Every structure is written in C-alpha cells, then in structure tokens.
Write a sequence for this structure.
C-alpha cells in the first residue's frame, strides 16, 4: 500500500456508501476501518453490490466502538476528522503517509464532544451552495483520499 492511508467510518448507516468506499479503498491502497455499531450487516447484499466483487479483497478492520478504535491507534498516529461543521477547509491540511481520515455517519456526522475536544484536527470540504447540507459520504471520502494522494505524490 503506497501511502498507508486509513479511511475510518464511525457508525456508517448506508451499506451502498460503505461498499463504494470499500471499492475506493481497494483502488487506492487504503485500509478501511469500520467502527461499530454499523447500520447494516457486512453480509448485506447491497454492501456487496456496491463493492461489486471486490469486497473480499478490501483490507477491512472492524472496531467494537469508537473508544476501542482510538485505543487501537499506534503511538504518533495522526487523526484527521471531517465534518460540515468544521471551521478549517481541508485544502489547508498537509496530509502524511499513514494518516487516519475519520468520517462520521451519514445521518449524524461526528459527535459534538469530539468536534470540541479535537477542533484543531477537524476539516470540512467546501460547499458553495447553502441549500446543500452535505455531499454524499462516499463522494466526501473520495475527494479527501485523492487530495491526500495528490499531496503525497505519485
């Protein structure tokens, strides 16, 4: 895996998004971390349909809950959080190999306590029309992963 990037989905709800993100992770050499509870079963037909026949090859790590995920991070690991409520635009962030790119669920995002306690590590993807609450989770992950790869080089 050329960049060692980690995509983290905290309590994802929509299997098709997770399947698409899994496919993206395989294509880009990222490890996919799924933080429970999930809003679906891993065997869900829609999950596998979105990931097509690639799901079996995706590097997936499951975590019992958010606390267990954070406990599992290696010393010195960099966590980068994404939320529509963040002040900083993600273009300002300088990605590094091995970063953990952390996204909340499609319906709830990331908790306010996390946004408050780690505000300096939170970024948003800019949106230019106020009528849009957020972009699709799979699209957001794609935008961030490819910006990280662009910064890290070929």
């Amino acid at each position: 895996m050329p960049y060692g990037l980690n995509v983290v989905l905290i309590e994802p709800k929509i299997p098709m998004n997770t399947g698409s993100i899994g496919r993206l992770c395989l294509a880009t050499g990222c490890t996919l971390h799924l933080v429970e509870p999930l809003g679906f079963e891993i065997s869900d037909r829609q999950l596998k349909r979105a990931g097509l026949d690639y799901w079996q090859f995706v590097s997936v790590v499951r975590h019992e809950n958010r606390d267990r995920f954070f406990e599992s991070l290696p010393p010195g690991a960099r966590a980068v959080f994404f939320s529509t409520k963040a002040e900083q635009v993600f273009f300002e962030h300088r990605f590094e190999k091995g970063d953990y790119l952390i996204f909340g669920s499609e319906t709830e995002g990331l908790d306010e306590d996390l946004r408050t306690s780690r505000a300096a590590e939170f970024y948003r993807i800019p949106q230019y029309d106020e009528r849009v609450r957020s972009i699709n989770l799979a699209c957001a992950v794609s935008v961030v992963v490819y910006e990280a790869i662009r910064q890290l080089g070929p």
Remarks:
- Strands lie at 6-10, 31-35, 60-63, 79-82, 88-89, 100-103, 122-124.
- Helices lie at 15-28, 45-50, 66-72, 112-117, 137-152.
- The mean pLDDT is 92.
